[in-house]
Design brief:
By secondary structure, the chain is α+β, with helices and mostly antiparallel strands. The chain has 3 domains: about 160 residues, Nucleotidyltransferase, domain 5, CATH 3.30.420.40; about 90 residues, 2-Layer Sandwich (Nucleotidyltransferase, domain 5); about 60 residues, Alpha-Beta Complex (Actin, Chain A, domain 4). About 40% of the residues lie in helices and about 25% in strands. The protein contains 13 helices and 18 strands. A hairpin with a 2-residue loop joins strand 7 and strand 8. Helix 5 packs across helix 12. The longest helix has 17 residues. The protein is flat. The chain starts with a helix and ends with a helix.
Length: about 350
């Protein structure tokens, strides 16, 4: 018995338990006792003929829209779920290998955050991808729960906590009390849809063709959800859809707000619906506590102001919103046996 225990202790010492925020736009990896050690784009570049992986993560993202004919840059996650099983597996294997001490000798235990609205088939696909990529054990946790834990909400208390996690593919809204999800809603609106809206607006308003990277840059630099005291502007370079030549124009934050209006409205309406579905006893808590925004989308200027203005409830942006879900998986790792025994 003591020999077995010693073997398990050695395995535990050699193994790195990790938490993964498997996002549509970025994948973040939390390593137990180290924190978030990896934050890279969820992009894989492959050779078209052999299907072999050319690059993963940051290096692959640099190739988006710029690859020669024999290489394709792929984003294997769509709307928060796996769109390409094999490519996701290759991406996970690369990320797990990058952060683990001895992934082949002692495969790590892995906690993965997934959207609350995914199907059982999609959940199984995530688990199988992680196992094939080198995990020895996989626990899935709902993204809003992970985000709530990651931002430090007192989820164990008998009171309501609302989290709104705005990622690349989905926006996750949840009301949590007594460490359980009272209400959750997952809508397929996030950073990707916002980028697509900007691309469409530029084509419609200016006949200017731009790529995903440029759209994302516009969103980050001048995107806003509520009128600003001083509106921003930036120069945008693209290709004239009519003449086919390079062109530069200047756009304002007011225009981009208009382009993103539909996405913002979808998020606001989903938050309003969550308040309406909330049990009366918990509604009173939310009036005092408000809602917390996490995820990359929460960094858009004044989005919390727009939601607060529409609902009459205070809305705060988490201290480190990009790392909220990954940090949540890390806290689950600290009490992994508890979570596994409760089957959450």
């Amino acid at each position: 018995m003591s020999k077995k225990r010693n073997i398990f202790e050695i395995f535990g010492f050699l193994s790195n338990d990790i938490g993964i925020d498997l996002g549509t736009a970025n994948t973040l990896v939390f390593v137990k006792d180290k924190g978030v050690t990896l934050n890279e784009p969820s992009v894989v570049a492959i050779y078209n003929n052999s299907k072999k992986v050319r690059a993963v993560g940051l290096e692959a993202k640099k190739m988006l829209g710029r690859t020669p004919g024999n290489i394709t840059a792929i984003r294997p996650m769509k709307d928060g779920v796996i769109a390409d099983f094999e490519i996701t597996e290759a991406m996970l294997r690369y990320f797990i290998g990058k952060v683990s001490k001895n992934p082949k000798l002692v495969p790590p235990r892995v906690v993965i955050a997934v959207p609350s609205g995914i199907t059982e088939v999609e959940r199984r696909a995530v688990k199988e991808s992680a196992i094939h990529a080198g995990a020895r054990e996989v626990l899935l946790i709902q993204e809003p729960m992970a985000a709530a834990i990651g931002v430090g909400l007192p989820i164990e208390e008998p009171a309501a906590n609302m989290i709104v996690d705005i990622g690349g593919g989905t926006t996750e809204i949840a009301i949590i009390s007594l460490a359980g999800v009272v209400y959750s809603k997952s809508i397929r609106v996030g950073g990707d849809q916002m980028d697509a809206s900007i691309i469409n607006y530029m084509k419609r308003a200016y006949n200017l063709l731009i790529g995903e990277r440029t759209a994302e840059e516009i969103k980050i630099k001048i995107g806003s959800a509520f009128p600003l005291e001083k509106e921003l502007s930036m120069d945008v370079r693209g290709r004239d859809a009519v003449a086919g030549l390079p062109k530069t124009i200047t756009i304002s934050s007011q225009e981009i707000r208009e382009a993103l209006d539909e996405s913002f409205n979808a998020i606001v309406e989903s938050v309003r619906a969550a308040f309406e579905r909330c049990p009366p006893e918990l509604s009173a808590d939310l009036v005092d506590r408000g809602a917390v925004l996490a995820g990359g989308g929460s960094l858009i200027r004044e989005l919390n102001t727009r939601i607060s203005h529409a609902t009459g409830v205070p809305v705060f942006v988490a201290e480190n919103p990009l790392y909220a879900v990954a940090n949540g998986t890390g806290k689950v790792l600290e009490n992994l046996s508890l979570w596994l025994s409760e089957g959450r």
